[in-house]
Amino acid sequence: MNKPTEPLVQLRGLSKSYRKGSETVEAIADIHLEVQERGMVAVVGPSGSGKSTLLHMIGAMDKPTRGEIVVAGQAVNRLSQAELTRFRRQTVGFVFQMFNLVPNLTALENVALPMEFNGVPRAQRLARARALLERFQLGQRLKHRPRELSGGEMQRVAIARAVANEPRLVLADEPTGNLDSRSGQIIYELLREISAERTVIVVTHAENLAQLADRVIHIRDGRLLDAPPLVMSLGPRDGPARSVL
Ligand code: ADP
Ligand code: MG
To answer: Could you read off the pLDDT of 191-222 as tens digits, one per residue?
Structure first.
């Protein structure tokens, strides 16, 4: 267990580069960031700024070239295969732009699936899946398959699935990228609601929706513009420290 004051996510000198022929593209360049337990953080940047790369590394779906990632007290880039599997099942939940639901499963079965991977008994996982979907106003859609749902409904099912195993961290990659503005607003409100019990990091290029988050961080060319140092003294040495956030 980590101490209550320890940040849930700590990134130290995180970098990721890709080779493109003879060139090296630095998708993420020396990022330092701390994110506290609970609440919603939005990372905003244009296409190609490194948002997905960053999120994938935090969720242990991709490995950094350099640097350290600690999530819930675990150094995720140094976990064994077995530890990685457990980390992905128990500590993080993902929400994707394209929803990524299993097409031949119903909404209820999609939400129950991660609990099956986690060894939750069938009756219990179906009851929890139903309760989550009802809470997300989808009680009338339990038996629907993804193709029978609207985009906004699919994303609500995906959010229910992401929290099924009660992860401490939910990572959402452009969750409203395929939705109209009204549905997008509902999805952000839902992410905000679930962030009362856990940390939600959402990456987006939608500046207006990001304003619903507790904290907004901007990313350009793989670098954070307005994240740490959290408090930087800009005045004379004995003057008040001013936050740059
Ligand atoms: P965003 O999600 O903000 O649109 P990405 O994280 O997908 O940005 O990409 C950041 C940069 O890294 C881009 O220049 C992209 O072309 C490059 N990149 C991402 N993934 C790869 C990859 N697998 N191979 C080579 N370059 C990549
Ligand atoms: Mg992306």
So the answer is: 999 999 999 999 999 888 899 999 999 999 99
Ligand lying nearest the CA atom of residue 205:
1
Which residue CA neighbors atom 27 of ligand 1 most closely?
Answer: 18
Averaged over 185-194, what is the pLDDT? 96
What domain range is 130 assigned to? 102-165
pLDDT digits (tens, 9 = 90+) for 85-110: 999 999 999 999 999 999 999 999 99
CA distance 243 to 245: 5
Task: Report the separation in Å between the CA atom of 201 and the middle of ligand 2, taken as the mean of its atom positions.
Answer: 14
Tell me whether residue 158 is in a domain: yes
Distance 50 CA to ligand 1 centre (A): 6
- Is 142 contained in some domain? yes
Residue with the smallest CA separation from ligand 1 atom 23 is 18
Q: pTM of the full predicted structure?
A: 0.90
Q: Is position 95 within any domain?
A: no
- Total tally of structural domains belonging to the chain: 1
**Confidence band for 1, pLDDT divided at 50, 70 and 90:** low
112 located within any domain: yes
What would the two tokens of residue 191 be?
């992410």
Burial category of 5 from C-beta neighbours within 10 Å (exposed 0-12, middle 13-18, buried 19 and up) = exposed
Residue 85's CB is within 10 A of a number of other CB atoms, namely 13
Q: Taking CB atoms and a 6 Å cutoff, what residues make up the pocket around ligand 1?
A: 18, 20, 25, 27, 45, 47-53
* Torsions phi, psi for 41 (to 5 deg): -115, 130
